[in-house]
Design brief:
Blueprint (H helix, E strand, L loop, with lengths): L2 H14 L8 H26 L1 H20 L8 H21 L3 H18 L6 H11 L2 H6 L2 H22 L33 H11 L7 H16 L6
Helix pairs in contact: 2-3, 2-8, 3-6, 3-8, 4-5, 4-6, 4-8, 5-6, 9-10
Amino acid sequence: MTMQNKSLWQSTQQLLGIEMSPVSHLERLASIGGGFVSILLILLVSRYFVGATDAMLIVASMGASAVLLFAVPHGLLAQPWPVFGGHLVSALVGVTSAQLVPEPFLAAALAVGLAIGAMHYLRCIHPPGGATALTAVVGGAGVQHLGYGFIAMPVLFNVLIILAVAVVFNYPLAWRRYPAVLQRKWAAPEQEEMPGGAYPSISHADFVYALSEIDSFIDITEQDLVRIYELVTRRRVYPADVK
């Protein structure tokens, strides 16, 4: 591949948002295994409470959570409070919308919108929570019959299951322990400041290498990291210029 073609391919990757620092096969297999175990357990629990048909609807939002917890275990949206608070507050909003708004389409839209707002203010944004709110409205007779009990059984129980599986399943793998605070600590080498308080230059390739060493999917691009580094070093070197 020529340098021109390589540059074009890299630009295309950035434009499309293609992952540019792939993780190892072991990391991918761990994500697959965690998703399988957690969803199997959740399906069995949900089927017991609402029946097989409605269980398939309820577990949809948990499937989305499984992607975050096992493919991006250290992402902010996958941490315990966003998962716990996001699903439960969304379930509460969804059930309330279903009971107070007789028009299903309006109730469904209102449930998702208000759930997003609630997650914002409670600092527990978890995208699958939107699906939980929606399920509370359109989940069928089994879900409607549960009423506010839907929040405890199966939503709360399912959340506790998926969080427990995430902690236990990931713990033996030191680089991906969950929650993120439990992951293996990396010892950073001593780094001296350059004369005048400046910092040594760090290239895009340096960030790519660092991400490959972590061997876990990081929900941030190399360009974002470079931009953050530039802002931090600019603040240290030229504090008066940073508003």
